[in-house]
Amino acid sequence: MAKEPMRVLVTGAAGQIGYALVPMIARGIMLGADQPVILHMLDIPPAAEALNGVRMELVDAAFPLLKGVVATTDVVEACTGVNVAVMVGGFPRKEGMERKDVMSKNVSIYKAQASALEAHAAPNCKVLVVANPANTNALILKEFAPSIPEKNVTCLTRLDHNRALGQISERLNVQVSDVKNAVIWGNHSSTQYPDVNHATVKTSSGEKPVRELVADDAWLNGEFITTVQQRGAAIIKARKFSSALSAASSACDHIRDWVLGTPEGTFVSMGVYSDGSYGVPAGLIYSFPVTCSGGEWKIVQGMMLLIFQFLVPCLFVHHLWLICHGQLDGVVSSASFLLIPPFTHMRELGQWASGISFYCILQYNVPTYSAKIPEFKFSKLCDVLSCHCRPPDR
Ligand SMILES: NC(=O)c1ccc[n+]([C@@H]2O[C@H](COP(=O)([O-])OP(=O)(O)OC[C@H]3O[C@@H](n4cnc5c(N)ncnc54)[C@H](O)[C@@H]3O)[C@@H](O)[C@H]2O)c1
C-alpha cells in the first residue's frame, strides 16, 4: 500500500539552499524513494515572486513523489501539519562576516517560527536548523517552543562531517563512500573539532584506521582540521555565496539518517541537545557522534583518546544570555579549541594550563594518559586544571 505523504517545511525556500534542497526532497533523497511528500515552502514577502518561481519549477519538473506544494509567506500556513521542518531561512553570511555577526538578525525570525511550529506542526515534528549560527538558532527555537521535545530540535553539522570525509577521500584517493565515522565535535563554526581518530576506510583487506592509512599526523592535526573548519569561508570566497549544493545535500543526509536510521557500525555527526555526555554542559546544542534508529538519535558513548579544552560551551551560554538581554554587539570574542599536548609529567600540564581561561574536560583520553604518566588520575587532572586556569573572562 502506498505510504501517506509526509509534509516537509523548508523556510527560506526561495534562497540558494532552498533552491537546491526542494528538488532533492521531491526526488526522495531525503525521506526515501517510496515516500510521497508535500512541500511547504516559506519565505518573506520581498521574496514571494521568487518563491512562486520555485513553485512553478516544481510543478514543471513533474516529480512523481511530490503530492502537493504550499508556497507561502504566512508562517502559520507554512508550519501547519508539518512532520519535518528544515529551517534554512535567515540572513546569510557574506564574505568577511563571522557567523556571530548574523546572529542578532536571526533571533526575531526564530522566535516567531518557533511559536508557529509549536502551535501548528504535527506531533513529533523533527526540526533541523540550518541557518547560521545553527547551534544557537536551534537553542533559540527550542527556548521559544518549550513543548517541542528536546530530542526533536537539532542543527546541521553533517556538512562539516561530510567535508571531513571528502578531505580524507581526496588525500587517500579512495571513494568517499568507503570512508566513515569521522566526528564533528562542538559548534558549527570555525571552533568545531573535526576528529578522525575513529574514522576508517574500507579496503580490500578490511577496514583500516584513517590515521594509519594517512600516516601523516602533522597533516591530520593541522591542515586537515583547518581545511574542514574554514571550508565554508573558502566556498564563500570562491562563489561569493555560501555553500548551497553541499548544504542541501547534507541536510538530506541528516534527516534521512535520523528518520530511517544509520547503517550498522556507522555513526554520523548531528548538533543535538547535550545530556551532559563527554562533560559538555547539559542543555547546549552541540555536535556529537550519534547513531539513529527508529527515528531517534543516540549519542555514541565511551569514545576514547584526547582531552579537550575549549571555550565553546562558555560562548553558547553567553550568546544566549546576550540575546535574551539584547546585548549582543561587540561582546562575543573569539573562541578556541585546543588539544592538550602529550605531557609526560603532571607538572608540565600545570604549566600549560596556566595560560587557559576556561576549560571543559572530556573524559576521553584517560586510558592513554594513565598508560604514559604513572601518577595520572582523572581527579588529579581536574585538580591541576582548576588550580592553574584563570577564571573565564566574563
Ligand atoms: N549549517 C550549515 O552547514 C550551513 C551551510 C551553509 C549555509 N548555512 C546558512 O543557511 C542559511 C541560508 O543560506 P542561503 O545561502 O540559502 O541564503 P539565501 O540568502 O540565499 O536564502 C535565505 C532565504 O531566507 C529567506 N528569509 C529571510 N528571512 C526569512 C524569514 N523570516 N522567514 C523565511 N524566510 C526568510 C530569504 O528571503 C532568502 O530567500 C544562512 O544562514 C547560511 O549561513 C548553513
How many E strands?
16
What strand order characterises the main sheet?
Answer: 3-2-1-4-5-6
Largest sheet: 6 strands, parallel
Strand pairing plus helix content: what structural class?
alpha/beta
Unreliably modeled segments:
304-344, 352-369, 385-394
Ligand species: nicotinamide-adenine-dinucleotide
Percent in helix: 25-40%
Q: Report Rg.
A: 22 Å
Overall geometry: globular
Note down, in words, how this protein is organized.
One of its GO terms (biological process) is tricarboxylic acid cycle. Its EC number is 1.1.1.37. InterPro entries: Lactate/malate_DH_C, Lactate/malate_DH_N, Lactate_DH/Glyco_Ohase_4_C, Malate_DH_AS, Malate_DH_NAD-dep_euk, Malate_DH_type2, NAD(P)-bd_dom_sf. It is a single chain. The C terminus is likely disordered. Helix 2 links the parallel strand 2 and strand 3. By secondary structure, this protein is an alpha/beta fold. The strands form five sheets. Strands 3-2-1-4-5-6 form a six-stranded parallel sheet. It starts with 5 loop residues before the first strand and ends in a 6-residue tail after the last helix. Helix content is 39%, strand content 18%. Helix 1 crosses helix 11, helix 4 crosses helix 5 and helix 13 runs parallel beside helix 15. The structure holds nicotinamide-adenine-dinucleotide.
Detail the topology: elements first, then pairings.
Layout (H helix, E strand, L loop, with lengths): L5 E6 L4 H11 L10 E6 L5 H14 L4 E7 L2 H5 L4 E4 L15 H18 L5 E4 L4 H10 L9 E3 L2 H15 L6 E2 L2 E3 L7 E3 L4 E4 L2 E4 H5 L2 H5 L1 H7 L1 H9 L5 H16 L7 E6 L11 E9 L2 E4 L8 E3 L1 H13 L12 E3 L6 H8 L12 H7 L5 H11 L6
Parallel strand pairs: 1-2, 1-4, 2-3, 4-5, 5-6
Antiparallel strand pairs: 7-10, 8-9, 10-11, 12-13, 13-14, 15-16
Helix pairs in contact: 1-11, 4-5, 6-9, 13-15
The chain binds nicotinamide-adenine-dinucleotide (NAD).
The site of nicotinamide-adenine-dinucleotide (NAD) has 29 residues, from helix 1.
